[in-house]
Design goal:
The protein contains 4 helices and 6 strands, in the order αββββββααα. The protein has one domain.
């Protein structure tokens, strides 16, 4: 099944996210997009576009994610909920 990313951006809450495993030497932490109640995550870049890399260390990259999410009206607590919902979409009861 093909996922329509453009539709997800229109219909789902989403966050910027980095993880320890997303580090790329000499670049930083590759940013991913996580959609509420959609299993998995979507690394930035692809289809001829360069990925986004933030932060020299994990704390810096996480701080940038928190700030960018906050600019979009997503609190740190809401971001954690959205992240968890991507791991266990059925458990949140909010599809």
């Amino acid at each position: 099944m093909q996922i329509n990313i453009k539709m997800l951006f229109k219909t789902k809450r989403w966050i910027y996210h980095v993880s320890e495993s997303s580090f790329v030497k000499n670049k930083g932490y590759r940013v991913s997009i996580v959609f509420e109640n959609v299993q998995g995550y979507f690394p930035t870049g692809g289809n001829g576009k360069e990925p986004w890399y933030w932060g020299g260390d994990l704390k810096d990259a996480e701080t940038i994610c928190e700030a960018r999410n906050a600019e979009r009206g997503i609190s740190k607590e809401e971001a954690m909920f959205i992240l968890m919902s991507s791991m266990y979409p059925a458990a949140t009861g909010r599809n």
